Fold each of these.
Amino acid sequence: MFKKFLKISLFLSPLALGCSQSHDLLFNSGFESGSEQTIDGWKPGASLNNPDRFQYGLDTTRRSGEHALKISNPQPNDSWVSQDVPVKGGRTYKLSGWLKTENVQLTQGTVGANLCVVGSFIRTTSLKGTQGWTQVVSYFKTSPDRTALSVACRLGFTNSAVSGTAWFDDVEFREIRLPAPPGLPEY
Ligand SMILES: [Ca+2]
């Protein structure tokens, strides 16, 4: 157990990551480009997709630059703003970003605001309630035949119904060019 922890800790250390990760594979990952409801490079989606349930857009509450992405669920929902990204099979990837929440409440499930890979169970830790800007991160491995996937800023999850507001900024998606430690989730 300790050996495994040590291996993952070394793998994730800033020194090891510094020289061995790709550039950010996302376009407009700081949400600086677009108009209010048209966010360059990103597209919206929701389990219940109507304005009573799901609102999104660029907002001046931000961590960097001039804007961040804001997602609001006035009533419980699972909603997201996603971007398709080409990937290579059998590689290790890091998904990270900054989240802020206001009155995020769950009526079903356990997952609040998070970053995730759509259609999988790969996601970062989630934020609930009201919280200031917090960094979240997730590592995973692609399956051998994977050529693309969709990265999402999400308020809710499969089987998690969530109301409230979340902001997302400085999202990054990078390939990690180190052998994957054992135990990483695969998609
Ligand atoms: Ca920004």
Amino acid sequence: MTLILLVIRGGYELSYPSKTPPGLIYDAVYMESILKHIKEITEYPHAVGQATHKVTGRYIERHIQQLNNPQVKINRHTTHYYNKHNRKAAALTNYIIQYPGQNPDASAVMLMAHYDAARFSGTGAADDAAGVAVALEVFKTFIQQNPTPKNKLMLLITDGEELGLLGAQAFIEEQLRYHNIGVIINLEARGSSGPAILLPESNSGTQGLIEAYQQAAVPMPVSSSLDAEIYAKMPNDSDVTPFKEQGINAFNLAFIDDHFNYHSQTDDLAHLSLNSVAHHLIQTKTLLNFLAEQDLNKLQSDHSLVYFSLPSQGLVSYSRNTSLIIFITVWLAWLLLLILFLRHKNYGFKSLLSGLKPLAVTGFFVFITNYILIAAIYTLIPGWQDILQGFPYAGHALINAQIVLSLIVFVLVYRRRQLTQQVGDVILSLGVWLTLVSLLTQALPGAGFLIIPALLALPLGFLSLYKPQWGQQMAPILLLLMLLPLGTLMINLPVALGIWMTPAAMLILVLMMAPMSLWVEYSSGSDKTAWLLFIPVIYSAWIVFEYRQFTPYQPLPTSINYLYDVDTDEAFLFHADKRRGGWLNALFTKPLTEQASEDFQQTYKKPLTTLVSSNLQAAYPATIKAQKPLSQAKHQRLSVTISAQPGTDILSIYTQQAMTLYSLAVGGRIHHFDEPMTLAAGYKLLEYHITDNPEITLQLAMSHDTRIDWQIQSHRTGLLSEFNLDERPDNQMPKAFIKSDLVTTVQTWTFSND
Ligand SMILES: [Zn+2]
């Protein structure tokens, strides 16, 4: 069992660099230079709108200029962008860097990363300073090594990614026509450690991309067609998404482990894994070396492959047609095996069905015990519920405990099976696995490689039908062979989708192992080994004990916000934590009723768990001026200027009446909509992130009878200093995904033509 855990865990650890020295030099790229960039970029917060964000942009620009290479062209692309889907907008600056190729008609290989960080959290060391730093150094080193590449090279450092890919979308609308981009290598992070997983992104098919990734001989490739298909089904977007919609293919590299640091104050240099940065570097440099000389048209394909990686070995890939042939062959072989089994003198239908019970019992208990284990731990450490990313501190220790627990349940059930019964178990559980994988592959063709357990167990079935003893000796070897490529799935699934995926992942593990259950030796008599179950339980208790307290390195996420309504002269304090009030508990002694909280959420659109009314006073309303509307044939055109008070970070507008817009200009940049944009009452019209000028002018084209009834919210950071509240203890941090520590002033503004 230890060996099984080691293979699963080892497969994950071996899949990407370990013990990366800061002095690493990979193909002439210095890790020290990369780290220096990350350090400089993360010295100050750099979300869009923060004064120090500009410093980051200038740092990148200066660094490119220092190359002193007349062939390198740097273009500062400054614009305003409004994302009509999430209605966020800001002034932005993208950096477009170009280097000519030998062939003037050839398209460009473009490295891409974003230099803005998430607001209200950390300094974005992993997301995406590491990506920017690697892209800069790889680009720089490459042109020093190969001054005359065949293809053109580009480096696009985008802005406003965290607000909804604003920079990338603005680039596409305003700049793409001047460029011919063949392929993109995008560097991203959704955590602070783990392997940088490759997601091939294409509108048509992934075959060209995966074949290039293989031909480039990227060391330590981590990718699977299942990852790519699950990712495609999730609502996640990256800067690659709008390019993909334009038919431009991309290699999207992202590390996603230690998800709890994502968009948090803990996304800093201290939490960033050097191994992940090294994995970014190795893959990016190898890919660029290869792609710079390739005909990029070859990356375009209409087909997708089935592929998976063998930890630290390489990528195995084959076509979907081959996958189909494998499935048909395996099914036919299994049917033959089934017939032979049923006609065998020692076996029969009854002995086949008897295998259902142990399989069902194992599956049931593995799922239930793992579910209870997580639920128990979340109850014992309630603060973990405030980690909104879904993967708690010590998540990996928990996964290890769950693997051990599942293996013990497996052994306890299967050790009651005699060798003759086990032969039937192989055939039955093989059939169950085949059925499940065939159904899954219908929905996700990329899951096709999950047939591996069946491929390995088939010969085992034939052999043990006639020589059960031989089968018994072969089973553990096959099991380990199977876990080599598939074992990491048990870690990757909860790392990618959250710790609550582990009961499902463990269920998959035991179903996958069941066709090879012959290795479990039969034991009659009472179960004296049941005490083994206590091992993972004790281990889990130790996890709880170790992690029960939050530390500055692994802090408790907490939130607090203040809202003042100018019209009603009411003030509120609220937070969105499971534990009431965090360190400011004293302020939250009289929570308002549930009804009041619901009304509040309805009115002001704020997530909260506890609401109290407050006697603190702070108001920073904006001044709003509208020009007399201009009547046009189809609509009226209204120009509204909102002047926020200095120090305001974000202006939000919610429309309290349904309204339809034909076009909207934000900061002078007009956005025409293909279809008129209709917003229902209560919907957000705009979330404007102020960069320099706290005055924003909107020009709206709307129907003649539209009356404006807006709720305008002015947000500013610095709640604690505003009211002289106690500083947050150093083992707590502002909660990710929730705009915390804000002073919000709410006002209503109405306007009509008559
Ligand atoms: Zn990012």
